[in-house]
Amino acid sequence: MANGTIAKKLPSADQILEPSPFQLMMRRVLGHAGMTFGGGVLILIFAAALFAPILSPHDPYTQDLTKRFLDPVWGATGSWEHPLGTDKFGRDYLSRMMFGARTSLLIGFSAMLISGILGTALGVAAGYFGGRVDIVITFIITTRLAMPVILVALVVVALIGSSLTIVIWVLGLLIWDRFAVVMRAATQQARNMDYVAAAKALGCSTFRIVLTEIMPNVANALIVVATLEVAHAIFLEASLSFLGLGVQPPTPSWGLMVSEGKGMMFFKAWVIAIPGTALFMLMLCINLLGDGIRDVTAPENRN
Questions:
Q1: Other residues' Cβ atoms within 10 Å of the Cβ of residue 142
Q2: Cα 301 to the chain's mean position, in Å?
Q3: How do residues 120-136 score in pLDDT, each as one tens digit?
Q4: Please, what are the domains in the chain?
């Protein structure tokens, strides 16, 4: 009898070997090659940006005209004193790349937060309430889609001036349409689900239904759009800086570095290749991470 009681209390072999939810999540994350690669590179870029004052070998603003356009370390006259060479003012390129990452990430995530709050609010309102609210918001979205982002940004920045804060707000107020469109469609699907009907039957307020029932079930689509818009904002900032209407010198910016080096592209190709490659890798890895999060958190993939 005692042996039988002990046997009942002991866990079975299946229970011992069954992985926890955290272990299952980590298996999915580590098994997703794109997410692992994108997340790993982004961690390195974030670390370089965060610890730029410590890691940068030189002051990114210090000019030395006697060291103009020094080759990177792999060039014929390169040295480890300036691993990525120097620009037309003799400023260390590696240091400016590190501080430029700060600028790109700050603008990308700040603009995404502004556009995300505005676009999500409009999209959820249109999808949940429908009717006249949906008609009005759809008209606003259509009007916004009719305006080319880069041209409107150029006009606004040219009229009111350019600074880091202005670029963030201009981009944030111009790229909310994708949030609105996706959230509207996702909310329209979610509002017809049984859990929303049950919450209404229990007498929950509209705010509580949206916050606790709708938002958790559209978060997967929201994450994907957010990552796309971070990359979009970074690209737009680089475009504005390249045209001279974005971040103003001497503030380091990858788009501005490409613009400053375009006159030497046939003689010193690395002056635009280095920041251009960095921009490409940053946007690629952000998109890979977003796609990976979508795949890993999708209900159909939780097995």
A1: 10
A2: 23
A3: 999 999 999 988 999 99
A4: 26-59+71-301 (1.10.3720.10)
